[in-house]
Amino acid sequence: MVIGICSNALRDINYEVAKYVADFISNHGSIAVFEDDIQKVDLIVSIGGDGTLLSTIYKFRHLGVPFVGINKGSIGFLTDIELDRIDEALLNIINGEYKVINRSQLYIEIFDKNGNLKDSAVCLNDAVVSRGSDLHVVKLDLYINDKPVEHFVGDGLIIATATGSTAYSLAAGGPIMIPSMEDMIITPLCPHTLHRSSYVIDKKSVVEVHTGNFESAPIISPDGRRMVELEPYDIIKIKRYDNVVKTIDMGFKDFYQKVSEKIAVRGSFYENGKK
To answer: How many CB atoms lie within 10 A of CB 250?
Structure first.
């Protein structure tokens, strides 16, 4: 088995965890390769937080191999391996004792007012359309399957996958979904209305967000990345991407148990002022 290793130098100081993982893999009859040499591997291990895992997936999703994260971040909803269980997890991986979860992705296209494609992107967590650096609210028209649903006024909209349901969408009051689910969630950000509920739509649905005219340009961020600058009357189309991302579930804890614990940790983490 060939295992790729991607480590965040800001989290994994002096790459101590990465070196340990590489030595463990080599000592148990498999091959470890680091990020710059990842071409043909059986799976990829990310060392850092959820952001590191998302960046690793963004860079190597085209390989179609499973990903797993070792948590060296703050909370880690996506990273499945805690530091105190590295040996057990790596041994299970080498022996093929794990479950693969197929996670849906989003495909985003931005068209100008003349219907010309300006930009496209793929993301695992969410696509966020929100106000930019100015404090003006954004005004957006939301369509689902070509049908007008809502004229939105507020800070923005989050269009999330089931994976992203425990990220920004959850903080904004959205529902929690099992990662293998294929539905999408639309969650409003600080809406200037009494309607604050999320929409849950099926995997075949197509979401459109129309910008209309504006004084201050909103921004769109897939998994925290920036896309092309939005202009008046742009149309953002979002749908389920054809390919899934495979992640490894070590089976150490039930999904809802993990979510409950991570939410508790998140509250304590921010209350104590940690970074």
So the answer is: 17
